[in-house]
Every structure is written in structure tokens, then in C-alpha cells.
Design a protein that fits this description.
This protein has eight helices and nine strands. It has helices at about 30-45, 55-65, 85-90, 95-100, 100-110, 235-240, 240-245, 250-255, and strands spanning about 45-50, 80-85, 115-125, 150-155, 170, 190, 200, 205-210, 220-225. Helix 1 (about 30-45) packs across helix 5 (about 100-110). It is globular. The two termini are about 35 Å apart.
Length: about 280
Amino acid sequence: MKIEGAIKDYTGKDLARTFKQLQPSPERQSELINQDFRTLMSEGYVIIENLITPNQCAHIKNQCMPLMSHTGRNNFEGEKTQRIYNVLGKTRCSDRLADHPRILGLMDLLFRPNYLLSQSQVINILPGESQQAFHYDDSFYQIPRPRPPLGAASIWAIDDFTEENGATIIVPKSQEWDGQQIPTTEKMIKAVMPAGSAIFFLGTTWHGGGKNQSSKPRLAVTHQYCEAFMRQQENYLLELDKDIVRSLSPELRSLVGYSIYPPFMGMVDGKHPLRLLDE
């Protein structure tokens, strides 16, 4: 995303001496990622199949299901949908989804360095759940459309996403809309994909959870991201104690907010936040 008003040697310069900006790993740069990015920018979304194994899906399900209890508090959360909030504070099982190189490779092309994780959830849509209202994820940033996305999201299928069990519904090319259009049935597609796959879409792309007409739940993990200069939805700095942050990968530490957007955004007492982990 092009940022207007950048001042050379100020807003674009990494001033840190000890904790320099993380450099992307080689796995985050490939022709496959470039192809996915072209699809993402054209259609507003891209589906990437079989990124994690059946064993990984089973491990995530085994770790998450005991944490599920209540259903949603309203129609948007889903009255027949279970959700885990503060995912990173409760389990390590989805860490490798949040910092997966195929996802971060797309983020590297989409946003400026030191972008952030905005929120994480585990979502279990139970049988009989109705369709979620259509929305676009970065609508809370009150900047008129059409505009570049300020957020983006991955939704990981831990169970198969099918026509019947509540596969996410996407409106292709809706990222290009101004503020006047609303989704109509003929423009929608269902993100049908096997377990272990992910759909990645722009924060300006209209979508919603599908209704579950099957006899089984449909489990998913979502990680949302935002530009480094936008406010995160989830306050990780209050949720995660230092011991948890120390256990995270360097990429995840940066994503939750232990990073700097040049020159100073994110500082603590004039210092890089990573210095707090040494105290």
C-alpha cells in the first residue's frame, strides 16, 4: 500500500540499533505466493489448499474443543456458534497458522513492514446455525470506500468446508466497491475447500459465515491482520503476559505488537518493546 506524506529518513527509516526489523524468511518469497497475490488483488480473495496436514488439523481440534463452551451472544456471533477469544493466551496450537509463510508472504506484498495481527478466533459453527450477516472486516476504520484495504484475514478449514456445513461465503471483486453496493445472491460463491486449507481475503472484501445445514459442526481458525499504523481489534499487550510472549516465534512477537513502526510507533518509555522481555 502506498502511504502518502512519508518523509524520507523519518517515517520510512528503521532507527532501532539492537532490535532491527525482522527480515522475511526465504519461504515467504516464491512464484506461488506471487500467483496467489495476483488472484487476491483481482478477486479479493484466494483459496490455498492443503497447507497443513490432517494430523495438524486433528491436533488443533483436540486442543480447541475442550475450550469451547458458550454459544454466541447475538446474531452476528451466531447463537449456534462457539468461539474462542484470546486464542494466543490459551493455546499454542494455532501459532503456525498465524505466522505461516504462505500467509505472511502475501502480507509482505500487501502491507508495509511490521504489520500486525489484529485478532484471532477459533469458530465452531454448529448444526442449524443461520447465515451470518454480510460485512467487510476493516469497516470499523471509518475511511470512505473505494480505498486500499487496511486489514486482511485468513480463515483456516480445520474441518472440510462444504456447501452444506457453513463454508464462508465470499463476494468476488467486492473489494472494488464504493460504499453504495450491497451483496446479492448471484454474486456470491462458497469457499468450499478440504480441511487443512485456507482462504485469505482483503479487509475490504464482503463475506459472511454460511449456514450449517449438515448434522455436524464446522471448525475453523481465523487470524486477521492490519497495517502497523492502525489499531488492532484485540489488545494482545494486555492479554499476553511476558512468559507467553517469550514462548512465541520472533514473527509472532512482532505481530502481536512487540515491534516498531518507524520511527517510534509502539515504543515503551522511548525504547523498543522487546527490551521489556529482558526485564
